[in-house]
Specification:
single chain; mainly alpha; 3 helices; elongated
């Protein structure tokens, strides 16, 4: 870089977009990407169950059970990581 020239600064919109993406990545993924993957699997499974003929009641029952299973699996995973 030549002497006397200020460093190049990215345009405001690019810095804002990068910050916005970094916030959502940290918010959704954070330290535990397995929870994000589990949530996406649960939502997909419930959507598939709900789309099947007359299985809306099963989807309503399955959703909280699957969420508890994902959270329980996350606790087991965290317990093993500490050992």
């Amino acid at each position: 870089m030549p002497e006397g020239r200020p460093p190049r600064v990215a345009p405001l919109w690019r810095r804002w977009l990068k910050g916005f993406g970094a916030f959502w990545w940290d918010f959704l993924v954070g330290d535990t990407p397995e929870i994000l993957i589990g949530v996406l699997v649960v939502i997909g499974a419930v959507a598939l169950i709900a789309k099947a003929a007359s299985l809306n009641t099963l989807a309503v029952i399955a959703f909280p059970l699957l969420v508890v299973a994902v959270l329980g699996g996350s606790l087991v995973w965290a317990g093993r990581a500490k050992d």
